[in-house]
Design a protein that fits this description.
The complex is a heterodimer of chains A (about 425) and B (about 240).
Chain A lengths: L18 H19 L1 H4 L8 H28 L7 H24 L8 H19 L11 H19 L9 H5 L2 H15 L6 H71 L5 H25 L3 E2 H14 L3 E4 L3 H4 L2 E2 L1 H20 L4 E9 L2 E8 L9 H14 L4 E5 L4 E8 L8
Parallel strand pairs in A: 2-4
Antiparallel strand pairs in A: 1-3, 4-5, 5-7, 6-7
Helix pairs in contact in A: 3-4, 3-6, 3-9, 4-5, 6-9, 8-9, 9-10, 10-11, 11-13, 13-14
Chain B lengths: L2 E5 L3 H15 L2 E5 L7 H6 L4 E4 L10 H11 L4 E6 L3 H13 L2 E6 L4 H14 L32 H13 L5 H8 L3 H10 L1 H6 L7 H10 L1 H10 L7
Parallel strand pairs in B: 1-2, 1-3, 3-4, 4-5
The chains are: A alpha+beta (about 425), B alpha/beta (about 240).
Chain lengths: ~425, ~240
């Protein structure tokens, strides 16, 4: 039998601090500082605040208000005889609540774009937490100890909101033992225990009670983080599933439309060419017609997004006029074109462009002006042509304007004869569908 | 002999258009189907009088803005012309090119070939031509004086900003602080600060306190303009 082979394994070599481990520790410390800075420091910094985040945020606000209320009630009613400085203690309690709630509300509502720096955020948070701990520690005996309950809710929602704002929601939970053995937790425990020893009659029982209650408080907060993160990531997943389902429906609709409309029209044009039934000019006109219908379909799709710009909606009609050899003497400016509108307004605007432009082309216009301006909550569309005016009783033209009038509302469409043609003015209300640019 | 360069991914249409220019206007025409074909070697061996460039190139990384910038930097006397459908998704790209680069004109693909050739002839003779009215709603009447090639340097004042841009591009539209920190090696709060520092400058580009997704789309769109300043800090902006 030969000598036993000695297997050298890298993974049991003497532990050394690698660059990667050092980096991991730095990253952990970085996240710890970020958690201490709180969600108010991170919200509105490039992330959307979704509905469940708002719900958890409001739960945190309520927990802080509840904590302030409980501490105040205990100071005002339970301490017997009443403490001489009770008014000051209550005021300090609410000061603690305010400095914790303020940045959170600002972050949740995105009202202020200029944010607090990290040192200021940390300072406010530490001041708030120290005030609440300081005002509640002397009361930690008997039933008032229940005030730790809202404190647990505060801590749990606070950690989960900050983790979500940083994008850590899907990372899974840090094991409980790592939380309990973390330097921050051990330090807090020591400070609370020392505070308990400074009370009038310190005893082993009171010390054990304080430590046990603090641990219960930390574990309750830890347990709360899971449902909060689960709620927020579940919302993200449901939203994604909804989007995917909508996309599937869209894909099927689009495939049907390409088959039924686009390919059908192209096939018809091809048959006409093969049978010699069309001239090159007629074929170009037919292809122009197909392109225009495709463009209209494209605009419909854009309008359905609920975020179409006026420039996108007007495009097919400018192209149609050009393809009919009509000179464009005026078009919407960039500033007006960049205005974005919701779905219902977009549909009405499309009609306000379609009817007058089509009428002008049918009437033989050689030049066309298409002006768009905003008048408060109304978009005003003015289409002027040089087609020499038209008869409102004409079957096609009159019907188009009639239906446009009924769609836009009484008095929203005005037809005016000019020296060489007609100007049609339409007023389309932006209403509640207005999308900020 | 006047030389026209056409850059369009639709090779067949490009060839037909080139043929029409040769026969009708008598210019020499060269065609490329991708901005990536515009190599240093090509640029040093060709003298281009007018470049007619499409903006959208499907799934390619580079856009028409890359081609326009390369041409402008290689030969500032080349007249730059954009030929585009002008659909919504190229609207921002068109606006960037219009404001940042000295475009001679902008032509719509929906115009007739005859009208397009007339515009090219006008550019050759006079150096510029009015933009196609169909595309006018997509072009600011006055170019912003803040949006210049050099102005993009203010979006990358320090190496940390270069790392931020590189991380934004690499991590995609759904990125969050955690992802950016992991990619860039920067601390979370450092990232937050770098982002906050360029917010006033971003507002000049039309981005008001942009979410990460908008920041990503801007970085992808303006990558050709940002890349030199990011790379000058020793950071690669990536593909």
């Amino acid at each position: 039998m030969g000598p036993a082979r000695v297997e050298v394994r890298d993974d049991v070599a003497e532990p050394i601090v690698t660059k990667s481990q050092s980096h991991d520790r730095a990253a952990e410390a970085d996240v710890a500082v970020a958690l201490l800075a709180g969600p108010g420091h991170w919200f509105g910094e490039g992330q959307a605040v979704t509905t469940p985040m708002l719900a958890v945020g409001w739960a945190q606000v309520l927990s802080l208000v509840g904590l302030g209320t409980v501490i105040s009630c205990v100071w005002l009613t339970v301490t017997n005889p009443p403490e001489p400085g009770v008014g000051l203690w209550v005021a300090l309690t609410w000061a603690g609540v305010v400095v914790l709630v303020g940045p959170l509300l600002i972050g949740l509502t995105s009202r202020v774009h200029r944010r607090l720096s990290l040192p200021v955020s940390l300072l406010l948070r530490v001041v708030g937490i120290v005030l609440l701990v300081g005002m509640s520690t002397p009361l930690m005996s008997g039933w008032p100890i229940l005030l730790w309950w809202p404190a647990s809710v505060f801590l749990g929602t606070d950690v989960s909101l900050t983790m979500r704002a940083l994008g850590r929601a899907s990372d899974g939970m840090v094991p409980l033992w790592r939380v309990l053995l973390s330097p921050l937790h051990v330090s807090v425990l020591v400070v609370v225990a020392l505070a308990a020893l400074l009370t009038d009659e310190p005893s082993i029982d009171s010390l054990a009670l304080v430590v046990a209650v603090t641990e219960a408080f930390v574990i309750a907060a830890y347990v709360l983080v899971y449902p909060c993160l689960h709620l927020m990531s579940r919302y993200d997943r449901e939203l994604q599933a909804f989007r995917n389902a909508a996309l599937q429906v869209e894909h099927v609709d689009r495939a049907n439309w390409i088959h039924d409309d686009v390919l059908g029209e192209l096939r018809l044009a091809r048959v006409r060419v093969e049978r010699g039934e069309t001239s090159p000019e007629a074929l170009v006109a037919e292809l122009d017609g197909i392109e225009h219908r495709l463009r209209l379909k494209q605009v419909d799709e854009v309008i359905r997004t609920g975020n179409a710009s006026i420039a996108e909606i007007v495009q097919p009609f400018l192209r149609m006029a050009r393809s009919h050899g009509v000179e464009l003497t005026e078009v919407p400016s960039y500033e007006t074109g960049a205005l974005r509108v919701g779905e219902s307004t977009g549909k009405l605007l499309k009609r306000a462009f379609a009817v007058p432009v089509t009428n002008a082309i049918l009437a033989g216009a050689r030049s066309l002006s298409l002006a768009v301006r905003r008048d408060g909550d109304v978009v005003v569309v003015e289409v002027g042509d040089d087609a020499g005016g038209f008869e409102l009783t004409d079957e096609h033209q009159g019907r188009g304007l009639d239906s446009l009038q009924s769609e836009l509302g009484e008095g929203s469409v005005m037809v005016e004869s000019t020296a060489d043609g007609t100007t049609v003015t339409c007023r389309v209300g932006l209403g509640a569908t207005m999308v900020p640019t | 002999m006047t030389t026209i360069l056409l850059i369009d991914d639709s090779a067949h249409v490009s060839e037909l258009f080139a043929g029409a220019i040769r026969s009708e206007l008598g210019y020499d025409v060269d065609s490329l189907t991708s901005p990536s074909e515009l190599t240093d070697q090509y640029l040093s061996s060709h003298e281009i009088d007018v470049a007619v460039v499409d903006l959208s190139f499907g799934s390619e990384t580079e856009t028409g803005v890359d081609a326009l910038l390369k041409l402008h930097q290689s030969s500032p006397s080349t007249k730059l012309t954009v030929l585009t459908q002008g659909d919504g998704w190229v609207g921002d790209l068109l606006r960037d090119a219009w404001e940042v680069l000295p475009l001679a004109t902008v032509m719509s693909k929906s115009s007739s070939v005859k009208a397009q050739m007339k515009t090219i002839e006008q550019v050759v003779r006079h150096g510029s031509a009015p933009p196609d009215p169909v595309l006018q709603p997509l072009l600011p009447a006055e170019k912003s004086r803040w949006r210049t090639l050099e102005g993009f340097s203010r979006l990358v004042p320090h190496k940390g900003h270069a790392k931020l841009w590189a991380a934004v591009v690499a991590c995609g539209p759904q990125a969050e602080y955690q992802d950016l920190a992991a990619h860039s090696g920067l601390r979370l709060n450092a990232l937050r600060n770098y982002r906050a520092q360029i917010l006033p400058e971003l507002a000049l580009h039309g981005l008001e306190n942009p979410p990460m997704r908008d920041l990503y789309l801007f970085a992808r769109r303006c990558r050709p303009f940002l890349a030199p300043f990011v790379e000058a800090k020793g950071v690669s902006l990536g593909a």
